[in-house]
Structures are given as structure tokens and as C-alpha cells.
Model the fold of this input.
Amino acid sequence: MPVDVEAVILSNTKLSSEYNVVALAAPQIAEPAQAGQFVMVKVTVRDDPLLRRPFSVFEILRDDAAHVTGLSLLNKQIGVTTRALYQLRAGDRVRCLGPLGRPFSLATVNEQAWLVAGGVGLAPFATLAATLRARQIETTLFYGSQTAKDLFHLDAFRALGVELRLSTDDGSRGDHGDVTIPLRRALTEIAPTIPVRIYACGPTPMMHAVTELAASHGRATEVSLEQVMGCGLGGCYSCVVPIRQHDTHHFVRSCLEGPVFDGGSVIWEHLG
Done:
């Protein structure tokens, strides 16, 4: 069951003029959290914004004795809440509700895991990579951004033993173009008999493209959708997703049935 806590800010690490990572002292949420789940955060006591905002659990934080102490959030300044989150200082407090949502399924020991991230879509993959590597799963991160300065957390993924395949829109690092370029090459190079589990998170067009590209090579994809959510608990129906199931089309709530979905079940053309 999710819990609602007043979490103290442990640190605020500025990655750039737009991105930061905020560490929260929320062990009650972090302890049961699984890769792919999210929290609903309210930064201010004012009515603006009235509603909380969803954030993927970025990292599970532990002390030197490996005890869970909290979690972190990867944030990009876009709106009122994200700008406020960027300005927080150690010792400030926020309301945090979680863990919420359906997590990723985990690759098995005979599978490779490929994580495909675009921009802030990196958010659910720090925890997923740590979980997979703890199980000795061979893991590769395909990570794309506009420019090299927007590629974050690379040393942490390397320290876990994750292989990196990078791309940038301006060609300043890795492949020149979007993240499907190194992914397409990898899908072409790997033998069809080698099992691979593919995960994707990022802009909707990117996840759609990744799902179709993987399917063209006979591979399934799990996607973490970034739907707007009003409550995170299924009450407001603001986060509905159109999916195919048993030859029928219907809408489900991303905060309950997701945010992780089988990419092949999503009706991408009707996804707002």
C-alpha cells in the first residue's frame, strides 16, 4: 500500500541549468518500491499548483550498512512544480505519496536487458539497472539526448557494469541522430536466438518508434508511459491510455494498470 509522507530533502544536485537530482528521506516509500514505479510529489504548501506531479523513482538510496534511507528523483524544469523542485535546498520538505503503479517485469538470467531512454526518460532506469545487475543480468543502456551535455549519470551506470550506447541529435557524442540508430544496429547484429528484453521510456514518438522497430525484429518492448496524472490513485481518470486487449480497444488508467505497459498493446496513434 502506498504511504504519504513529509519527506526531508537530503540533497539537490544540479546537473545543468535544466536538470537536477533531488534526494528525499523517504525510506517508508523507498523500501517497497520496485523499478518502474512512481511517486506523486507536492513541493509547496500553496494552492499553485493544486495537484501533485508524478515522478519515476530514480534511485533507491542506501547508507554504508546498505539500509534503505530514501529515494531520488530526476527532474527537468518545465512547469510550476518542476521549477520549484529545481530550487529546493537540503532541509526543505515536500509531500511524497508512493510507491505507485505497475513496475517493470525483470529479465531472467538467460536474457539480456536493453534499456532505451530518451532525455528525462532515463528516470526509471537507474533503479532498473541496479536491480538487473544485482541479478547478474547483462544490461545495455541506449541513451539519446539533444546534445552531449544532456547525457547524465553515465559513470553510475558504468559502475554497475552497464554497457552504454549513446546518441545525440547534434552528433556531439555517440551516434548522430536519435536513439533508434544504435538500437537498430544492435537489433541487426544480435542473433535472433539470443533472448533480449527491451524496455523504453521517453517522448511518446520515441517509444512508439522503439516498439515498432523491436517488433520488426521479433522483439517485444515494455514501455513506461509519461501520462499527465491528477491523483495517481485512479480517481480522476486524467491518465487514461488506449490499449488493445483480446481483440478489443479500451481505455485503462496509467496510474493503476501502468505506467509500464506492453508496447505492442498501446494504440499509439490515439495516445494523447
